[in-house]
Predict the 3D structure of the following.
Amino acid sequence: MKVKIRDIQIGEKTLELEKGEVEEIISKLDLTNNGVILVRNGDILTKDDKINDGDVIELIEVYSGG
């Protein structure tokens, strides 16, 4: 299945997924689970959510400071 990923840093990119899992997107983009939030249609995705063919996923990177 193919999904579109939108991010400020990488722009828009199409990914080919086999399992349709959030973890698969994080792994393919070489991100950390704690460093990014995935959003689909305004809803935050959790690691348990399934990704569907044709979904558009927005990445929001999380930064913290002290």
Notes: The chain has a mean pLDDT of 91. Residues 17 and 25 are 8 Å apart (CA to CA). The longest helix spans residues 22-28.
